[in-house]
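Narrative progress, year one. The postdoctoral researcher (J.K.) led the effort to move from monomer predictions toward full complexes, under supervision of the PI. The following entry was the first complex the group processed end to end, covering 635 residues in total.
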Amino acid sequence: MTRLTPTPATRCGVATGDRPWARRGLIGLAAAVVSLFLALPLAFVFVAALRPGFGAFWAAISHPDTTAAIRLTLLVAAITVPINTVFGVAAAWLIARFEFRGRQALLTLIDLPFAVSPVVAGLMLVLLFGRQGWLGPWLLDHGVRVVFALPGIILATIFVTFPFVAREVLTVMQAQGSAEEEAALTLGASGWQTFVRVTLPKARWGLIYGIILCNARAMGEFGAVSVISGHVRGETSTMPLQVENLYNDYHAPAAFAVASLLAVLALLTLAVRKTIEWRARSP
Amino acid sequence: MTTTARLFFFLPGLLSLLTVSGAGCGCDSDDAGSAGARGGATVRLLNVSYDTTRELYEEVNAAFALAWRAKTGQRVEVRRSHGGSSKQARAVIDGLEADVVTLALAYDIDAIARAGLLATDWRTRLPHGSVPYTSTTVFVVRRGNPKAIRDWPDLARPGVVVVTPNPKTSGGGRWNYLAAWGAARGANGDGEAAAREMVAAIYRNAPVLDSGARGSTTTFAERGVGDVLLACESEAWLLAREVGADRFEIIAPPRSILAEPPVAVVDEYAKRHGTEAVARAYLEFLYSDDGQRIAAKHHYRPRSKEAEAAHPGGFPDIERFTVDDQFGGWAAAQRLHFGEGGTFDRITQGER
């Protein structure tokens, strides 16, 4: 959350100029840590996935239960991310630009999903919407299934990923102040025009990072979804749950195949971010 | 300006595109609500089962689909969900709409019945008290049996590390606990005090209590924890014969429990889906020659003598006692041992 305003990079040479060994040592240490804790496990996932050969890999990820899990995960992300984007921007804008009663409460509420364990979040929804919950019986009478079905998975994912967009956008908006918006308003722009033409473009980096983090978490969420999904194969198992299913089935290579696919999706998200950054910078 | 505005919506847009293209590549797009007989000739059943029946029901489901199609011309697709038995029962009570449940112990199906989802006399509806196959608790040790484990008292020796699931959450964990208790009580005839002492010693030797039976198997087999795994016979065979033939051995204790994993149609949900007939046929299939043969193949002891005889290697002779005989039924066993403040609580809180 601190990478939002790109500052001109300080040359490392200037900062530790008189001690090049310290510089190299620190860089080496950082590189070692990164490769040990990030690159190596990631690489191992791909190695383990492809060890039995590409044919086996393909058989694993084209199994109907797995393709259903992939579809479900993408569908959940495709619904969750736009919803959290719209509400996240709205909440951030309210908090950054207005003083009102309950502002602090709203801010705390936005942070709540970070503080609450995902398992508790899932359980909360089961207690609320389950067959014996508060709202469950009424919903069932009207033919709506929430828990152990798609709506429950989406609700759980929305809850867990809500803070990302709101938090990122809020930080940028607060850092930038409201001078330019006030200028736009005095020059005769309407509220909506000001929002779309001044506020939103100024907050774009926060928004993009927020969407990316939100998307990554939405695809990778395990705990909350695990509680509310029911683990039905081919129906309510998302990709992370399918990884667990396969691993416990003693199909470790298939589990790694799905895991590697999940990793590819994450890398794809990063690539999309890079492309957007690049296109936004070039005129 | 407008280009940047457009860019904001690039990512979600791309994702929905991916989803649409993803939806094209699979089979029929699934409507999560349609577990029932809607949508042409394909019927969907949901079998909510426990942890160690994964391989069994994978094969049963395929075989039943063939048999049902040959008999009625109707396609049936059986979906499955696996997990700790009590956790699965909980999910069904909370609204996981299982047409049938095939759980580790009767107590869990009783809980579903108490929630009003099926009649309390469900046990009388199918032969053998609605238990199509049985099992028992055996030991899996590392190759060569380095700790010389032969019988229950060996598990209580200091320095032996035991792996078993948590009896609070796992049906298999409860079978194992009662197997130890019953074996201890029966073997020396010293009654409850001796049994309690031995079971307490065994659970002091158990550093990890996983929430499900399959979790314990992975702890023992993949993570290399422990000298002995307490497992239901099917799980032990799967581990010793198929997963790690050169790494593990099965030890059959002289006495153990008669584990009876029951099956039932969940009336309320089956009625809602219009699947009562096919759900019942599915469970009856478990008693058929094919069903019994498949059960034996996956190392569950079938009811049919022919299927049992066909088991490769044969089932070892173990004197098996029932929960009803030794503990006066599941309700009493649950109250005395696994309920709030039961013997398991006292063992783990008092002496750990």
